[in-house]
Write a structure and sequence with these properties.
single chain; alpha/beta; 9-stranded mixed sheet; 6-stranded parallel sheet; about 25% strand
């Protein structure tokens, strides 16, 4: 197999971009570890209480300040860009707060619970002329950059079908937010967004002409499982997700002359397998491996979180270059995928309190 060791670029201007962390949970830990590994300056962390912020500060080296509310982070003059890693339902409030004070924003996915709130954030960012990115970190992995290039080059022809799954067995006691509609719980917004974004890559970010869904609404009225069929102008996608069981978590781009498989874990991948077909049952197989960068920060909680370094690098370099969007995941694609998620929820009859 081809072995690619592609550490993130270390531009001097990117290292001058100063970061703030909005939130003190597990995903914030892993993102802060990426910033530490890149030697990017972290000015401050803010949490809902000072105790939480100070505990986080003690875990991640070289965080200068800890705030017990988010407003102090928003007005800190030594913060250029804020990473928002709070629960889904808080994203709109926190993003609007940071944008109002002129901060660039990297907001964890899903950006919000619905198109109404997503539009508010996008309009605010554009009005303030600040950088904004929804944190679809998968797009910045070298493996996905390779897949995109293979699709552009038509290495195995044109994509006509796309298949993907993502699932794990969730523990309601360990992760209650996944079962809580008040914070946008359920499988679709939390992990279903990954297969949707992967399908969007296959078909150039186009808007589907048809969205059909089915699934399981659990006892707390969140989607514990979903199946989504998308029809695009040039092809079809079949996507599944669940928090009831572990799935293989693979993606396959089926093209006219072969297929491209993203090996598990497809949302944070390190291997791509390309098959050039030669009649039924035959073909030439080529593998590409992309080792993860090294983590020098605190211990990581989620699989392959070393890959946050790719996203952080892209954000810092884009801001340093004076640009307001990352070309890997433009704002228009965020809006398209939000529309798909809204349509999916409508099909299932899934309504959140925040939709009122």
């Amino acid at each position: 197999p081809h072995l690619y060791n592609a550490p993130p670029c270390q531009g001097r201007m990117a290292k001058a971009v100063r970061w703030g962390i909005c939130g003190s949970g597990r995903i914030c830990n892993d993102f802060a570890a990426a910033l530490h590994s890149l030697d990017y300056p972290i000015t401050a962390v803010a949490a809902s209480t000072l105790a939480k912020a100070e505990k986080f500060q003690a875990t991640v080296p070289r965080i200068a300040r800890a705030y017990g509310n988010y407003a102090e982070l928003a007005v800190d003059p030594e913060v250029d860009v804020v990473y928002i890693g709070t629960v889904h339902s808080c994203h709109v409030e926190h993003a609007l707060l940071m944008i109002a004070h002129g901060k660039h924003v990297l907001c964890e996915k899903p950006i919000t619970l619905n198109m109404r709130d997503t539009t508010k954030i996008i309009e605010a960012a554009r009005a303030k002329k600040v950088f904004f990115l929804e944190g679809m970190w998968t797009r910045f992995f070298p493996a996905i950059r390779k897949v995109k290039q293979l699709l552009v080059d038509k290495t195995v022809g044109d994509p006509v079908l796309f298949q993907a799954d993502f699932g794990f067995k969730a523990d309601a006691a360990a992760a209650p937010r996944l079962f809580d509609p008040a914070v946008g719980g359920g499988a679709g917004l939390d992990i279903g967004i990954y297969p949707i974004a992967a399908a969007s890559l296959a078909f150039g970010g186009a808007t589907p002409t048809s969205v059909k869904a089915t699934g399981i609404l659990g006892a707390t009225n969140v989607d514990e499982q979903g199946v989504l069929a998308l029809q695009y102008p040039s092809g079809s996608a079949s996507l599944t997700w669940t928090i009831l069981a572990q799935t293989p978590e693979e993606c396959t781009y089926i093209c006219t002359d072969g297929h491209i498989k993203i090996a598990s874990p497809a949302h944070a991948p390190t291997k791509v397998i390309v098959t050039r077909c030669a009649g039924r049952g035959g073909g030439e197989v080529e593998e590409f491996d992309f080792p993860l960068p090294t983590n020098t920060g605190p211990g990581l909680i989620f699989p392959n979180s070393e890959g946050f370094q790719y996203e952080a690098t892209a954000v810092a370099e884009t801001i340093a270059a004076g640009k307001l969007e990352c070309e890997e995941y433009p704002i228009e694609e965020t809006l398209t995928i939000q529309g798909i998620l809204d349509a999916y929820r409508k099909e299932l009859g899934l309504v959140y309190p925040a939709d009122a």
